Amino acid sequence: MKWRVLIAFVCVWGLFTLFSLSYLISDPDPDPECHADVSDLHLYYQMYYLTNINVQQIICGDQITVQFETTGEHPGMSVQEYERRTTHSVLRVDAGWALLTRTGTSTIRKTSENLRPMRKVARLTTPDLEPDNVVRKPVEPVEPVEPVEPVEPVEHDSGQRIPRLIHQTWKTKEVPVWARSNSWINLNPTWRHRLWDDIEVAEFVASHFPQVWSVWDTLKPVEKADLFRYAVVYVHGGVYADLDVECVRPIDSWTGIDTSGVIGIEGIMKTKEEMHLVRFVAMTQYCQWTFAFCPGNSVLNVTINIALSRIAEGETDTLIKTGPGAFSTAIEQSNTTDLTILNGNAFAYGGYSNSRTPTSETLVKHGFRGSWK
């Protein structure tokens, strides 16, 4: 009898132990002192893979292992691959693991190398889509659109100066955590700041630029953002800045802010081979993440018309079609005698061929977040 009781006790204890171990293994956060902050993991996938993640399991230790799945359009694609795609109806789910490194009792240091997936453990596709259709389907060439009438220049006083307006744009009025819009507001209290959301952008383009609106639905988000920045400053004047650009010095202290325009060089190439190697699209390439103009400046009129021409020609490279290629070509074709052209350290320090650290000439800091996404 005693042996039976002892055996029963051992069996019950064994089952309890196995249950406890399985619970600890499956528990998303078994360590009460482990509070893994995965916000940067979310941000990384939102910015670079245009998708969201759902955390499935967190295993704590000296290093934190996070199992997650991604959901959204084209997860895992690079920006270049995303830009080449013409179909946005594909929905895939990928599952993977990422490592986060513990630096204290409950603090997690997140680095870019730790945020990349360690390995893919599963890949699913929607039932009505075959994997071959999702991954290997060739991209159809973009058909040229009908030529549109050029945008007519507006009348403006040649002595007109840059108005005290700052323009920025985002999908909604709720800006992401990495946005640097407060730096523009705080350093420039006498300047009016305007954040345009996607609805306001569309309404503005439709009412002011019917030529652009006629091709609006054929454009990628980044191309719409390009054309809007030229258009809004052409109509209203002022300073435009991408949301990931930080204002380092007050605008009133900028060299040339009392002229009709301020632009900054991004880089100067010595040869075309160098230009192609570093993925520039102009021998002298100008920044279009920050610039300032008076209303009706001819550079912006020329930029918009160059972009419309390249859209009509079926150009597929966004950098050439609406980005710095179109902007830089317009500057080269325009009369810039009343513009202030700043060297690469003003708007593009840290970029190719410029200083790696801020200098006395630095006016803004570009975060290179790809905020157009």
Low-confidence stretches: 23-30, 73-93, 104-145
Globally, the shape reads elongated
Care to count the β-strands?
14
Reading the helices and strands in chain order gives HHEEHEEHEHEHEHHHEEEHEEHHHEHE
How many alpha or pi helices?
14
**CATH top level assignment of the largest domain:** Alpha Beta
Fraction in beta strands: 15-25%
CATH topology group of the largest domain: Spore Coat Polysaccharide Biosynthesis Protein SpsA, Chain A
What is the end-to-end distance? 73 Å
Radius of gyration from CA coordinates = 26 Å
Structural domain count: 2
CATH architecture of the largest domain: Alpha-Beta Complex
Major β-sheet annotation:
7 strands, mixed
Classify the helix fraction into a percent range.
25-40%
What is the residue-mean pLDDT, rounded to a whole number? 74
Secondary-structure topology with pairs:
Blueprint lengths: L1 H25 L12 H10 L3 E8 L3 E11 L5 H6 L6 E12 L5 E2 L2 H4 L4 E6 L5 H5 L29 E5 L11 H7 L4 E5 L1 H11 L1 H4 L7 H16 L1 E4 L3 E3 L13 E8 L3 H6 L6 E3 L3 E4 L4 H15 L5 H4 L2 H10 L5 E4 L1 H4 L16 E3 L7
Parallel strand pairs: 6-7, 6-8, 10-13
Antiparallel strand pairs: 1-2, 2-3, 3-4, 3-5, 8-12, 9-14, 10-11, 10-12
Helix pairs in contact: 7-9, 9-11, 11-13
